[in-house]
Specification:
With about 150 residues, the chain is mainly alpha-helical. About 80% of the residues lie in helices and about 0% in strands. It starts with 6 loop residues before the first helix and ends in an 11-residue tail after the last helix.
């Protein structure tokens, strides 16, 4: 996706992605626990859109920024989405809900990766990442819409 980047820059990008994920997973947990998952979910989706937008650009700095933002989005969305799922089920259903969340999260990563790769084969990586950024921006609108559901079933 970034032939202008050296192997060292790619490795640094992967380090940024992993460190960003670990840090934001930890840092967002307190916010999610105290104030709920809505704001962190919005921040995570915004970070996804920005990350994909950066990755659409042909520069090493943009690639490194995109990798960091991608990792940060991954970490915060892990914390926020699992907390959201668990807040919507009775405590006795937590194990099953957690298992379904794991399947859905991993499947989403796999399907998303395949979709971007398929698009990139026909339009190139820059356009595929730009389309992904637009899709994340659209998803963010739906994720932040008030849904009117109660947080915990009776």
């Amino acid at each position: 996706a970034h032939p202008e980047a050296s192997s060292g820059e790619i490795m640094l990008g992967l380090l940024f992605q992993g460190a960003g994920a670990a840090f934001t997973r930890w840092a967002s947990a307190r916010q999610v626990d105290r104030h709920g998952p809505k704001v962190p979910t919005g921040a995570g989706l915004a970070s996804c859109a920005l990350a994909a937008g950066c990755l659409a650009l042909p520069s090493q700095a943009a690639m490194l920024t995109g990798m960091l933002l991608s990792g940060m989005a991954f970490g915060v969305l892990q914390s926020a989405t699992v907390a959201d799922v668990l807040s919507r089920v009775a405590p006795s259903q937590g194990d099953g809900a957690g298992a379904l969340w794991n399947v859905a999260y991993d499947a989403g990563l796999g399907i998303g990766g395949l979709a971007v790769a398929a698009l990139a084969t026909s339009v190139g990586f820059g356009a595929a990442f730009a389309a992904t950024a637009a899709l994340f921006a659209l998803v963010m609108l739906f994720a932040l819409k008030p849904d009117g559901t109660s947080r915990r079933p009776n």
